[in-house]
Amino acid sequence: MLDIQNYSCGYGSEFNLSGIDFTLSEGCFAGIIGPNGSGKTTLFRGISSELSTRKGSIKVNEKDLQSLSFNERARNIAVVSQTIESAYIKLEDYVLMGRLPYQGRFTFFETEKDIEIAEKYMRLTNVWHLKDKLMTEMSGGEQQLAAIARALTQEPKLLLLDEPTAHLDIAHQVQVLNLIQKLNKDLKLTVLMNIHDLNLAGEYCDYLIMLKKGKIHSKGTPEEVLNYQYIEDVYDTVVVTDKNPVSKKPTVFLVSGRVMDETKKLKG
Amino acid sequence: MSTKAIHWGITTAILLFCLLVAIGISLTIGELKVSLFDIPDILRQGQGSIEHTIMVNIRLPRVILGIAVGGALSLSGVILQGVYRNPLVEPFTLGISGGAALGVAFAIVLGLQFSMGSFMLPLMGFAGALSTIIIVYFVSIKQGRIRIQNMLLIGVMISFVASSVMMLLMSITTSENLHGIVFWIMGSLDEPKQSLIWMNLIVSLVGLVLTYLFVKPLNALRLGEEKARHLGVNTNTSIKLMFLLASLLAGVSVAVAGVIGFVGLVIPHLMRLIVGTDNRILLISSFLGGSIFLILCDSISRVIILPNELPIGVITGIVGGLVFVLILSRASFKFNQS
Fold first, then answer.
1. How far is the C-alpha of B31 from the C-alpha of B25, rounded, in Å?
2. CATH of the structural domain A2-267, one choice from 3.40.50.300, 3.10.310.30, 3.30.470.10, 3.40.50.360
3. Low pLDDT (below 50) residues in chain B
4. Chain pair A-B, CB pairs under 8 angstroms
5. CATH assignment of B3-330?
């Protein structure tokens, strides 16, 4: 589905990603993790074609991204970014913009089909009742759901999400991720997200890519990637890992400085 | 038929009706008052009567130029505010008026309108506007990509340079030339050459049609450049073409009618409040709104100090500015263009 080979990209000479290699199969729910400045956003911008490729290739369903037109790309990849919406647009019109990649230059009005598709995804994401509200009047959680509805309306093969849970409380975090999980399962949608929270990454993703200084440090299932040696190596922070008693997924615990000192004293 | 189509059809019809009313007002008032119902008779009587001369040679051309210039400036403002996602941008922010004014000032100081014919003033105005557009455009492009924030700053700087050079010219020239320059800057719909008026109308209407080719990029750009690209819009090419289109619309209008400020800034904002931010309806509404506004302002400027006439730029500034402040203080309108 998504096939990235020996890929590098970057901004000028300052920061570069290099030697990025990974493959996602269809219906995979994958996460990119790594500390600030490790290249998560850069990789994300690379896959969404915001940065030009230096080396290697990114293929979606066997097609090289570079060879696709803007519209074809938007029909294959939909992006949910984390910026807050400042545009004065009604939610319904905002979601309908997801049909733009399917409309020709001379299409003036949305077709019945466009409207049906938009309605379907607004209902699926539970924002249908807000359809006449302005984007600017909605809460962060509602905006996030609206952005997902808009992305689904693009009917993409691959859904990219940039920190979908940033700025949200735990209730909304779980609501958004449960929704994505459901979409992933029901629509067989391949999902790739940037995420800071290692516990959420471990709980929801079935494939993780951990970056360190612009390179892939490790990749694999959460059980393979989220072990304390790898995390301490990448984040340079002491952590304890265990399993969630219910889901059996890996969890990561932090240890405060004072406790660390006390532990050292006890040992010493 | 979707509800949108019906809704937008009605909006356009109402605006067209308002335009007709404005045209009616403009044709009937003035030093010589004419009843609206007499106009067909006057036109039928043919040449000879004073009424006919005033109607055909003075008022009608002004109305047509008002439609063309008001529409073009307002449309140009909508496009630029959309492209730059900045509520303070108007056609003249980018130095187009500064360039045009400088071109005309040179022509007047050198006496070109006497030595080579009066067509030199609009021609030099257009040349000035065009040079500014070219400078702003090429300085803003780096590695094939247009950097829109830089573009804005460059436009503002060129405006400053142009106005300084113009002040230099004004400080060294004769008072007669000074008068000509000042009057040109203030703008007027009084244009003796009918050919220029028709040309301006054609440019404006063609511009309106061409702008509709960019409705999709303009709508997507409401979310910002990056998100527009994610929706399949080639933002770089669209922005370049839209900048050129908006600049040419403004450039031609400035060359013919002088610097008429505020239309391009205020009307798009006003229309956004009324019809919303969807460019499919906003573009045509702004065009018609600009025409209505300019025709009405022109009517005021002609009658307010009879038998003399005020420069139209004075009226657009005062009326437009005050109306807008009033709206801002009342409506729950936040300063966000998109």
1. 13
2. 3.40.50.300
3. 335-338
4. 71
5. 1.10.3470.10
The amino acid present at B173, given as its one-letter code, is T
User: Which residues in chain A (57-86) have CB-CB distances under 8 A to chain B?
Assistant: 69-75, 77-79, 81, 83, 85-86
Largest separation between any pair of C-alpha atoms in chain B: 64
Nearest to A76 by CA among A85, A84, A87, A64: A64
Q: Is B24 exposed, middle or buried (0-12, 13-18, 19+ CB in 10 A)?
A: middle
Convert the pLDDT of each residue in B111-140 to its tens digit: 887 777 777 888 888 899 889 888 888 888
Joined tokens for residue B228: 């527009």
Pairing status of strand A29-33 against strand A190-194: parallel
Q: What is the ipTM of this complex?
A: 0.89
What are the residue boundaries of the structural domains of chain A, listed by start? 2-267
**Domain range summary for chain B, segments of one domain joined by +:** 3-330
pLDDT at B331: 60
Q: How far is residue B198's CA from residue B203's CA, in Å, rounded to a whole number?
A: 9
Take residue B83 and report the two structure tokens written for it: 């492209």
Considering only CA atoms, which of B326, B315, B323 is closest in space to residue B26? B315
pTM: 0.90
Structure tokens at B85: 């996602």
Q: Distance, in angstroms, between A56 CA and closest chain B CA?
A: 22
Q: How far is CA A151 from the centre of its chain?
A: 12
Cα distances from A197 to residues A36, B107, B257, in angstroms, run 12, 67, 61
